[in-house]
Structures are given as C-alpha cells and as structure tokens.
C-alpha cells in the first residue's frame, strides 16, 4: 500500500467515526492514532482535497478546508473498505537505539547502560500512559461497537511497552555481568 493510500486510510477512517473539520481530523489523527500511527499533517489537506475530488468525502459549510466540515460518502466508505483489505505493507524498521547498541563495543558499556536505562524509563512511562488510556476508554466507551477494536490497538501498545521494559532489564543484566 502506497504512502498516499495509507494517508487515505487515516483520513477516511477518521471521518468514518464522525464528520469533522480538517483541523479536528488532524488533531484526532495526532491524539488518537498517534499512539501507533504517524501521519504527516502536510498530507492531510491535499488528501482531503483529492478525496473530495473523487467523491469520497463531501464538504459541508464554507469553501475553505479549515472552516468546512468533511463527511465520508458512500463511495468513501467503499474506498476505505477497499484500502483496509489491501495487504499490510510493513515499513523497514529504523531503530536508532538498536543501531547504537549493535556498535556498543565502540560506544562503550557505560553509554550503552545509559541508553538502556533511558529506553526502559520511556517504555515504563508509555506503559503507564497506555494503562491509563485503557482504563479511561473502557469507562467511557466500553459499550460502543468500536470498543473491541480500539481495545486491541491499546493492548498492542501495552504489550509492546511491557516487552520493551523486560528487554531493557535483560540487556542491563547482560552488561552488568560483563564488567
């Protein structure tokens, strides 16, 4: 799936929840999807325009994108389903921490320990944030039809954060044993 197709998924998916302004859509993508998906805000407005030109969204209100409310159309829902059914295309991983640890002999054990402690602290903070998010969403949205799917994405964050904490601890133990 191309980058522009993935942007269409984020935009159409957001509008499938409720009609909103381009600004509100941008905020929803950042605040809600941002836990597992990043989207270039510079792509949202052109994507909205292209989707409008194709008849997949309709503009309600003013002529300016920022003041208009956009709503997904029937053809937009069909397009979203089409895009969601395409195979998932993973991006090649780029992890600066792992790159540094791979060359840790050159970097030095002390600096590697610092990096691992920092990664563990960040993962612990993420874990706490995801657990708060899950509890809050469960109380507020536990009865909506979207709830099982929202829960799955938050659980992925929880499991990833737990794994990151455990990995960092194991690596720190490894370095501790090799003084």
From TrEMBL:
<feature type="domain" description="Transcription regulator PadR N-terminal">
    <location>
        <begin position="11"/>
        <end position="80"/>
    </location>
</feature>
<dbReference type="Pfam" id="PF03551">
    <property type="entry name" value="PadR"/>
</dbReference>
<dbReference type="InterPro" id="IPR018309">
    <property type="entry name" value="Tscrpt_reg_PadR_C"/>
</dbReference>
<dbReference type="Pfam" id="PF10400">
    <property type="entry name" value="Vir_act_alpha_C"/>
</dbReference>
<feature type="domain" description="Transcription regulator PadR C-terminal">
    <location>
        <begin position="94"/>
        <end position="175"/>
    </location>
</feature>
<feature type="coiled-coil region">
    <location>
        <begin position="113"/>
        <end position="140"/>
    </location>
</feature>
<dbReference type="InterPro" id="IPR036390">
    <property type="entry name" value="WH_DNA-bd_sf"/>
</dbReference>
<keyword id="KW-0175">Coiled coil</keyword>
<protein>
    <recommendedName>
        <fullName>PadR family transcriptional regulator</fullName>
    </recommendedName>
</protein>
<dbReference type="InterPro" id="IPR036388">
    <property type="entry name" value="WH-like_DNA-bd_sf"/>
</dbReference>
<dbReference type="InterPro" id="IPR005149">
    <property type="entry name" value="Tscrpt_reg_PadR_N"/>
</dbReference>
């Amino acid at each position: 799936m191309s980058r522009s197709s993935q942007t269409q998924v984020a935009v159409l998916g957001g509008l499938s929840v409720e009609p909103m302004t381009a600004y509100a859509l941008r905020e929803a993508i950042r605040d809600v999807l941002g836990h597992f998906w990043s989207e270039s805000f510079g792509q949202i407005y052109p994507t909205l325009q292209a989707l409008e030109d194709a008849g997949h969204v309709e503009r309600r209100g003013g002529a300016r994108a920022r003041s208009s409310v956009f709503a997904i159309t029937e053809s937009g829902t069909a397009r979203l389903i089409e895009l969601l059914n395409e195979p998932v295309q993973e991006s090649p991983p780029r992890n600066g921490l792992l790159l540094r640890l791979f060359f840790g002999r050159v970097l030095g054990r002390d600096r590697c320990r610092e990096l691992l402690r920092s990664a563990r602290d960040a993962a612990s903070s993420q874990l706490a944030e995801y657990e708060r998010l899950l509890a809050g969403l469960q109380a507020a949205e536990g009865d909506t039809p979207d709830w099982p799917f929202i829960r799955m994405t938050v659980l992925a964050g929880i499991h990833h954060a737990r794994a990151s904490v455990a990995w960092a601890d194991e690596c720190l133990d490894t370095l501790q044993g090799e003084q």
